[in-house]
Amino acid sequence: MSRIPVVVIGAGQAGLAVSRLLTTSGVDHVVLERGRVGERWASFRWESLRLLSPNWLSRLPDFRYTGPDPDGFMRATEVADYLRSYAEYASAPVVEGADVTAVVRHGGRYRVTTDAGCWTADAVVVATGWCDIPYVPAVAAALDPRIDQLTPVGYRSPAELADGGVLVVGASATGVQLADEIARAGRRVVLAVGSHTRMPRRYRGLDIMWWLDAMGALDRRLDEHPSPAAARAEPSLQLVGNPDGRNVDLLSLHRRGVGLVGRLTDVAGRHIRLAGDLTETTGRADGQLRRLLRRVDAYAAMAGLAGEIDAPEPVRPVPTVGGVAGLDLHHAGIRTVLWATGYRRAYPWLRVPVLNRTGEIQQVGGVTPTPGLYVIGQRWQSRRNSSFLDGVRHDAATVADRVLDHVGAELSGSAA
Q: Exposed, middle or buried, 230 (CB in 10 Å: 0-12/13-18/19+)?
């Protein structure tokens, strides 16, 4: 068993960012990764998956994108390569192939057990990320077994789907991307729409992420939000990182022939039940978008940009048909259901009492109730972009400082 001041679990952007700051502070540590650096990005089977943010918005501590296409969008495999380059640049002490099986507190320290060895540490940073395990609702178990079921992790391309139509459940970033790609391949697609955040890829000639970054919207702090719980429950931005910069939202999908229906509420064999809330959810998203674009227009005027950019563009509403109460999948020719219903986290190896009733790690700014145990990469951990490739650097600085304080105290106590 090896003894070391700090163990970081996970070598994605969050773990590597903390590692870099610990290294520059002279703190000995190890980064444990179950596969390779950037494993989650490297293992995606989805061929066309790209970052939702432009390459220039990929900033990590002491490192940023310097390639030939700053306004482009990295593919998943390129993100994995980017993270490996960062690990090499930062001389990150990564142990690959170290799948963690247990973290326990023992004698005021932590024992971390993996299938590649054991470590004892004064502090542990959990950096396993927000998009861990695809969430599939319990009603999926009642679906007719003759209908294929997939999650985005198992999806590769339209060509590998069963013949026939496809029902995509969920209309956030992943759901609209999948619906668009499958419809473009000539398949019939129905999209079950729940709460979503509509967003144009470009506005007034500039990428929407440029506006959000310039306005400070991505850096909005959780403690500035009137309802932190509501902030964490916000759906992801309805964006796609296409090289051509086109919009992929409910309006563009409707024009492409994708059938839009309300939120899926129940399943019974080949029959699905749908909520009659499509008009309400799309109207709410359209209203939120109008308010955001008014803020962009005000910022453009204040910054003196109005004469240098395109004219304001109206928000065109999404046409919605009268509520559809249900759908017979066989009659509709649908042979595949794709669950784009988000992700959940699971910590079966974390044997420290820091999980709440929903299984999430309790934390404030990355600090858990148990001394010496920290977390990073959580959605809205401290600000809007906490779980983004770019935004994790802010939380990394905070968490690294807390680790330094704790490790310094532990070392002082040991010396005494």
A: exposed
**pTM: predicted TM-score of the whole model, two decimal places:** 0.92
Chain-centroid distance, C-alpha 405: 29
With CA atoms as reference, report the closest residue to 206 among 302, 132, 312: 312
Q: How far separated are the first and last CA of the chain, in Å rounded?
A: 24
Are 266 and 325 within 8 A, CB to CB? no
How many whole angstroms separate alpha carbon 79 and alpha carbon 64?
12
Residues 6+ apart with CB under 8 A from 362: 354, 355, 356, 368, 369
Q: How many CB atoms lie within 10 A of CB 240?
A: 24
**The two three-digit tokens of residue 348, written as one number:** 């079966």
Residue 67 has pLDDT above 70, yes or no: yes
Q: Whose CA is closest to 373, among 341, 406, 413?
A: 406
- Contact indicator for 150, 337 with CB cutoff of 8 Å: yes
Mean pLDDT of the 105-123 span? 95
